[in-house]
C-alpha cells in the first residue's frame, strides 16, 4: 500500500495506495521520511526497511520525520471509459496487481494524481444489458 524513493539520502514515502490500510489509518503521508524501524536505521536503503518489516512480529515502531505539506482538498474528477482496459495485458504497468480492469461505459473517479504516469481511481461499473 506504499512505495518509497531515496531522495537526498533519505527514504521518502513516494505514494500511498488510495483505500489501502496505510491510507485508511492516515498516519503516514506522501513526503514523510522514514528514519528507523524498531530502532534500526533504514534512512538510505529500502531493502533494510523491507528486512525489518519481514522480520517483525507484533509491534512495529517507526521513527518518522513528517512532511508538513498543506493538504488541499482534491477536486472530484470523473471520467467515462471509452474503451476496455486490462492491466494483465499492459506491458508498461509497473504493478499489474494494482491495476484496475475496466470496460467501455464504466465511470472512473480520480482519487489521487500524485504520480503523473499512474492515477488512482474508484470505479463505478456501467449497467450491462
TrEMBL record:
<protein>
    <submittedName>
        <fullName>MAGUK p55 subfamily member 2</fullName>
    </submittedName>
</protein>
<dbReference type="InterPro" id="IPR001478">
    <property type="entry name" value="PDZ"/>
</dbReference>
<keyword id="KW-0728">SH3 domain</keyword>
<dbReference type="InterPro" id="IPR036028">
    <property type="entry name" value="SH3-like_dom_sf"/>
</dbReference>
<feature type="domain" description="SH3">
    <location>
        <begin position="74"/>
        <end position="129"/>
    </location>
</feature>
<dbReference type="Pfam" id="PF07653">
    <property type="entry name" value="SH3_2"/>
</dbReference>
<dbReference type="InterPro" id="IPR050716">
    <property type="entry name" value="MAGUK"/>
</dbReference>
<feature type="domain" description="PDZ">
    <location>
        <begin position="1"/>
        <end position="68"/>
    </location>
</feature>
<dbReference type="Pfam" id="PF00595">
    <property type="entry name" value="PDZ"/>
</dbReference>
<dbReference type="InterPro" id="IPR036034">
    <property type="entry name" value="PDZ_sf"/>
</dbReference>
<dbReference type="InterPro" id="IPR001452">
    <property type="entry name" value="SH3_domain"/>
</dbReference>
